[in-house]
Amino acid sequence: MAISVCEVSLTQKPLDLPVRENDPEAGAVVDFWGVVRALEDGREITGIEYEAHPVMAEHQMREIADAAAGKFGLTKVVIRHRTGFVRAAEASVVVRVESVRRVAAFNANQWIMDELKRTVPIWKHPVFKERNVSATANTDSSPVRA
C-alpha cells in the first residue's frame, strides 16, 4: 500500500475539496459534507458562528487524520473545517477519505467525524433568526457538536 497523504485545514472561506487524483489503489472514496441545519434546538437560525484555537485545532485534526490513516489503512485523508460565520445550508466541515475497500472508507469517515466533535477545540454559537442574536445558552467550552 502507498504511503498515506493527510491534509487538514481551518478556513473562513467556503469549503471545497481538491480535484480527486486517479489513485489506482483507492477502490473507495467517501466524501462527507457537514452542513449547517436551519434549526438548532428547535429554533430557526440564520447560521452558526464557529471559533477555534487554530494551532491546537489543526494539530488535533492532524492527529486524527494520521490515526485514521493507520487504523483504517487509508491512502488519503482530507479534513477541512470553517471558522467564522457559516450560513444555514452551507458546509461547515468536509472530510474525504480514500482506501482500498469501501467498508474501511465509510467506517473511517464516521470515526473521523466522531473524533473531530469529541476532541478538536472548535466551538459553535448559533445565531437565531428572532432578533438575530447569538445563543447565550451555549457557553461551555466543549468542542463542536454539529
Record the SSE blueprint.
Elements: E1 5-11, E2 28-35, E3 39-40, E4 43-52, H1 54-72, E5 74-82, E6 84-87, E7 91-99, H2 102-119, E8 122-128
Parallel strand pairs: 1-5
Antiparallel strand pairs: 2-7, 3-4, 4-6, 4-8, 5-7
Helix pairs in contact: 1-2
**Helix share of residues?**
25-40%
Number of helices: 2
Order of helices and strands: EEEEHEEEHE
E-strand count: 8
Give an overview of the whole structure:
With 146 residues, this protein is α+β, with helices and mostly antiparallel strands. It has one domain (5-14, 26-129): Molybdopterin biosynthesis MoaE subunit (Aldehyde Oxidoreductase, domain 3, Alpha-Beta Complex). Helices cover 25% and strands 38% of the residues. The protein contains two helices and eight strands, in the order E-E-E-E-H-E-E-E-H-E. The strands form two sheets. A four-stranded mixed sheet has the order 1-5-7-2, with helices on one face. Strands 3, 4, 6 and 8 form a four-stranded antiparallel sheet that branches. The relative contact order is 0.27.
